[in-house]
Amino acid sequence: MGDGAADDAKGRAKEAAGALTGDDDLKREGKVDQATGTVKDKVGDASDKLKDAVNRD
C-alpha cells in the first residue's frame, strides 16, 4: 500500500470513528487525511508519467 492509499484508509477510519462518536474534529481530521492521500497519489502518478516520458528510448 502506497503512502496515498495508507493516508486514505487512515482518513476513512478516522472519519467513521468520528461519525460514530459524534466527534466532529475527528471527522474533519479524517477528511484531511483522505485529501492528503489523494494528492499524494496524483503527485506519484504525475511523477511516474514524467519518468516514463524522460526515459523513452
Automatic annotation (TrEMBL):
Q: Which residues form the CsbD-like domain?
A: 3-52
Q: Which residues form a coiled coil?
A: none
For the region Disordered, give the residue spans: 1-57
Full protein name = CsbD-like protein
Q: Which family does it belong to?
A: Belongs to the UPF0337 (CsbD) family.
Q: Which domain of life is it from?
A: Bacteria
SUPFAM superfamilies from the entry? Answer: Hypothetical protein YjbJ
